Please model this.
Amino acid sequence: MFSWDAFVKTLAQTPIEFERLKAIQLAQAILESGRGLSDLYKLHANPYGMKYRPEMAQIATPVEYTASDGTDIYCKFANLENTVKGYWVFIERPPYQGWRQNNSTPEAFIRFIAYAGYIGGPFDGSEKDKAIKEEYIAKVLRLVPEARQLLEKYRIWRAKGVMLEVGHGQGDPGVPGVNGISEYDLNFIAARAAKATIDAAGVPCVITDAAGSLYNIGKLAAGHDVFCSIHHNSATSSAQGAEVLVHRTKTDPADLRLSAIMSAEIAKELGIRDRIAGGRDPRQSLAILSGAEDTDVRVSVLALLYFISVRVPNARDWSQRGGQAVGRAILKWLRETAG
Model:
């Protein structure tokens, strides 16, 4: 049987396209399932009362279920992640066409889908149908504060989220790559890609390319969960690989864990060697990480995505993909430590 707490946690930690709509998604589940007490939820992981439609075949299976309005065929989900994602598959169906243009606020979204047919079928223009839909909208909106409180309990970040630092900062192009693009430009491409990945999961993320001493730039990490300085490597050899470094003396097991996760993720994405897994000691004397570690930041690392002194098929593409890998690694670490 599926538990209510497990659903709330899964919804909180599963990325969706519009994170601002998670509270209204949960508020609907609270209303429709009685906070997870319905048999349709407990037995079939369906807290929304979603009836089965052909478009749901990719993520749900049909199951016969008797509800208060009679027996019908409903969606059955194999796991709670599919439940979260299945809701949006259901909303992508033709009756709700236009919801993407009507979701600026939770109220705008629930009003649109209610009148499109989520409750009682498409609006028929009558005062009776209007009253039914308005009552449903009001009930869901009254539950949004409770939903937000529940989601807050299971969020994966504890402090201010993530700070990404564009290596070399303003006015310093860094080492030129053999592809003719400066390291700073590639660092910025990677940082933006990492931020987009982290933003999509609803985790607060900022980018800095501040100038100044490396130690003082590191101090900007104060109050964040993760500080990651993004760079590309350079060497005289033809070796290629990814590595993620930590401070030589101020590191702790959490820093080392993120280093290992991130180095592996970048290497896998780009199909190159994971230098950390290969025995490279990630502990180095780096002023920017020294500054970060002298704050209350939970973890700090310096990511070297790949060697720009070695020609690659498309440096911009590699940096974008490497940045996405950085974002995924940070999210994986946050989920591991979310409790």
User: Anything to note?
Assistant: Strands lie at 61-67, 70-76, 162-166, 205-208, 226-233, 241-247, 273-274, 283-284, 299-307. The chain has two domains: 4-153, 162-336. The longest strand covers residues 299-307.
